[in-house]
Specification:
Layout (H helix, E strand, L loop, with lengths): L1 H13 L8 E2 L1 H8 L3 H14 L2 E4 L3 E4 L4 H22 L5 H20 L2 H18 L3 H21 L5 H17 L3 H24 L1
Antiparallel strand pairs: 1-3, 2-3
Length: about 210
């Protein structure tokens, strides 16, 4: 039950019903979801582990809120980590990996065409995870996942804007082709450019 409630809360946050800086009230959520406070508390603990919410001593738990400067710094670090991982992925990619990545790209194309931003985001996360796994470098994977946790809410909303899903997947496909051909220099370049393009899209969305 706690896992299901955590999933529901995550979708409410992604949908904007709970915004960055909002406090999550256990009692109110228990009434809303027809359960006791125990499962709510555990669900909030799960979300805390993902970086989506933040506990504040003697005040409660709040939806994660970060400054623009923090966001820019995290994107810079994500770009470096993802570029490093993409270059290493070229050393390990197999035909089976290529088929799996191609299937993800096609699924993301379908999600973009249908306007399914939630589905696209989940597939996008999986694509990045696949590249990180192909790097065979546990420390960079852990670093990258830490950066991702801090930005989930903002990145998820990024794909609500028209055209952003399509542009993002064009970048994915270019990166995939470099990895599939074993071109480490291009893979590193395209991976870093993809992250920086995502940062630019997010800033444009914030300014709109």
């Amino acid at each position: 039950m706690s896992r299901q409630i955590a999933d529901q809360l995550r979708e409410l946050i992604y949908a904007g019903e709970f915004k960055p800086g909002d406090r999550l009230n256990e009692a109110a959520l228990a009434v809303r979801m027809g359960t006791s406070r125990g499962p709510i508390r555990e669900a909030i603990r799960i979300l805390t582990g993902t970086g989506l919410v933040t506990p504040v001593v003697n005040r409660g738990v709040f939806v994660r809120k970060i400054s623009v400067q923090e966001m820019l710094e995290i994107y810079d670090l994500r770009a470096l980590a993802f570029g490093f991982a993409a270059a290493r992925a070229c050393e390990h990619v197999t035909d089976e990996d290529r088929r799996r990545l191609e299937a993800l790209l096609e699924a993301m194309d379908r999600a973009a065409q249908s306007g399914d931003s939630g589905g696209y985001y989940e597939l996008n996360v999986r694509f990045h995870e696949e590249v990180l796994l192909l790097a065979h470098h546990e420390r960079v994977r852990q670093l990258y996942e830490g950066y991702v946790k801090e930005l989930h809410l903002y990145r998820r909303q990024n794909f609500n804007a028209p055209g952003n899903m399509r542009r993002s997947n064009v970048e994915h496909r270019r990166l995939y082709e470099a990895i599939a051909k074993g071109n480490a220099a291009k893979a590193k370049q395209f991976a870093e450019e993809h992250i920086q393009a995502g940062r630019a899209r997010l800033l444009a969305l914030a300014d709109s």
